[in-house]
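Before relying on records like the one below, remember that each one covers exactly one chain. Contacts with other chains, cofactors or solvent are not represented anywhere in the record.
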Amino acid sequence: MRPYRLPGEFLGVSRGYRWAVGAGVAWLASAIALLGAADSASAEAPARVVSMNLCTDQLAMLLASGGQLVSVSYLAGDATVSVLAGDAGAFALNHGQAEEIFLMQPDLVLTSTYTTRATAGILKRLGFRVEEFPPEASFDDIRANVRRMGALLGRQARAEELLGAMDAALADIPARSADAPTVALYYANQITSGRNTLAGDVVNRAGLVNMGEKLGLDGTQKLSLEQLVMAKPDLIATHNAYPAPALAYDAQLHPAFRAALQGKNPIDIPDKYWICGGPFTVEAVKLLSDAARREGPR
């Protein structure tokens, strides 16, 4: 199905699309009514790509050729969660709304399987090509998503180049020893990661033992401060993304948390390195590995 296309006077919309977002709602209604007249889509390579999700934003920014990617989500410009925030200014920023994406007239829309679901559904009904990426739970998932993105954008060679550099960096990190320390991942709101998580794989690749996995936890779960203290991890990795005090980090200010550190400094892993999986996630592995060597045995 070929996507409904706007009349010529609307086709120049890119960075300046915001002026017409209100009009886009009316166009959406008209376009949906005309879907029955749309014919089969052409298989030509995408020339206008829009990403609506932080994770697909960053993969596309790493892989797209010049001018191919026209818009990324507004989160791509947030340095607390985006490794490539400094590059986001080169693209129009979107908020994942169907009318704004429609007005950009993309050949390909990128998003996650868990976000912007309503927008993705509308755009599909309008005949736009929407590709949804599952979140990465391992470095194998990162490889799969990078290769898939490279294939979608016609940038397979660039994808392999990025993965080669990532794998070389991983190979330089020391393997786990028999007496590897146990690290507790402790995020905002007392959340930790166990098996089948990207953070858990990061810990394993760093040559450490994930306390969440050791406790039999699967996925991302809450871990009370009492449980953390009783588990007696060798190291604790956390990150406070807020410059001012926040309720989400109350546990990290509690005396029991300080006691759990047993005189060690918490390992600071910025969220941007593993909130999304990408070649840059190897930086989280390096930070953990280096911190474990620096802190040394108890």
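The two ends are 63 Å apart (CA to CA).
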